[in-house]
Amino acid sequence: MPRRHLPTRPGTGPARAARPDTPPPVIRIRRLTKSYGHGDATVHALRGPDDPATGAPLGVDLDIEQGDYVAVMGSSGSGKSTLMNILGCLDVPTAGHYLLDGTDVGHLDEQQLALVRNRKIGFVFQSFNLVPRTTALAQVELPLAYAGVRAAERRRRALAALSLVGLDERAGHRPNELSGGQQQRVAVARALVTAPAMLLADEPTGNLDSRSTDEVLALIDGLNATGRTVVLITHEDEVARHAKRVLRLVDGAIVADVRRAPVDGPPPVPHRAEVPA
Ligand SMILES: Nc1ncnc2c1ncn2[C@@H]1O[C@H](COP(=O)(O)OP(=O)(O)OP(=O)(O)O)[C@@H](O)[C@H]1O
Ligand SMILES: [Mg+2]
After folding, report:
1. In Å, what is the CA distance from 155 to each residue of 113, 128, 137, 215?
2. Among candidate residues 75, 63, 65, the one with its CA nearest the CA of residue 235
3. Of 72, 156, 164, 203, which is the most buried if we count CB atoms within 10 A?
4. DSSP characters for 251-270?
């Protein structure tokens, strides 16, 4: 793409001053569009700004640095989940490029994409997406089983992840025996058990009460404080204030991009463990 567009478009602004030792962004998307349907019925779920000359969508540009904590906000239908599904390699763009850790994922086949999802990305969804009638321990072991980790090691790591989210005593419980907040903590344990570089969370607290919301956000803050890149979708300002950078989507375009805290510092809301009693 013409480089002259780069400095002026939200998403690619000076997230921080370039330094010689700055690693390349973990996420780089360029001119990315996603459309559904055809002809008059086409929905441009991601379109970016319009080309002033032709009116055609220019696509979305976005860089996310390693270790950043990014909240994506926007009203219903603005394209948040579409963006997250593409970032998570769960869906493919209509046009444009997505480089994850420097690899153009558009060139990968389905099997390679599954490997990328398993190795690099942890997912947390609004609806928990736990497997019914399956114990918390087995849920958390699942991504390790896909990765080919042996049974004893799987168990050890899954129990450690459940312990991290405060649920080691619930390891034998099934989803219908857990509260919503506990189910989401199992989902967080499942997302972190493979030690992914990036956590993607789509409205992770959307179905939780305020206490469970605080617990789950404290976990996500802690994951970012220990170096994980976090991309979190939310409707709520209270949730977005945990992030270091806030993007706002309107009709499939990034219209605002605000840095609230440095990429390489701690998340802006003090981690629970650091808050005096
Ligand atoms: N599979 C699909 N087929 C057709 N249109 C779709 C599909 N998925 C999403 N869309 C449309 O794309 C647009 C963006 O949807 P998306 O789910 O990304 O919104 P969102 O910002 O996540 O909204 P919400 O806050 O309600 O979850 C919407 O207009 C939606 O109707
Ligand atoms: Mg959505």
Report:
1. 26, 21, 8, 24
2. 75
3. 72
4. TTEEEEEEE-S-TTS--SSP
Q: Give the residue extent of every domain in the chain.
A: 67-90+110-266
* Distance from C-alpha of 62 to C-alpha of 46, rounded to nearest angstrom: 12
Predicted confidence at residue 2, as pLDDT, reads 44
By CB atoms closer than 10 A (0-12, 13-18, 19+), residue 230 is buried
CATH entry 3.40.50.300 includes domain 67-90+110-266: yes
Whether 42 lines ligand 1, by a CB cut-off of 6 Å, is no
Ligand 2 centroid–CA 101 distance in Å is 25
The protein residue whose alpha carbon is closest to atom 24 in ligand 1 is 76
Answer for the pair 70, 76: CB distance below 8 angstroms, yes or no: no
pTM of the model: 0.89
Q: Which ligand 1 atom is at minimum distance from the Cα of 252?
A: 14
**Kind of pairing between the strands at 43-46 and 27-36:** antiparallel
d(CA 275, CA 266): 14
Alpha helices in 69-179 (DSSP H): 80-87, 110-120, 136-146, 151-164
Q: DSSP code of 177? A: G
Q: For residue 141, what are the CA distances in angstroms to 120, 147, 203?
A: 16, 10, 23
> What CA–CA distance (Å, rounded) separates 170 from 51?
54
Question: Do residues 33 and 59 lie in contact, with contact meaning Cβ atoms separated by under 8 Å?
Answer: yes
Ligand 2 center from residue 9 Cα (angstroms): 24
pLDDT digits (tens, 9 = 90+) for 188-220: 999 999 999 899 999 999 999 999 999 999 999
Contact (Cβ atoms closer than 8 angstroms) between residue 42 and residue 108: no
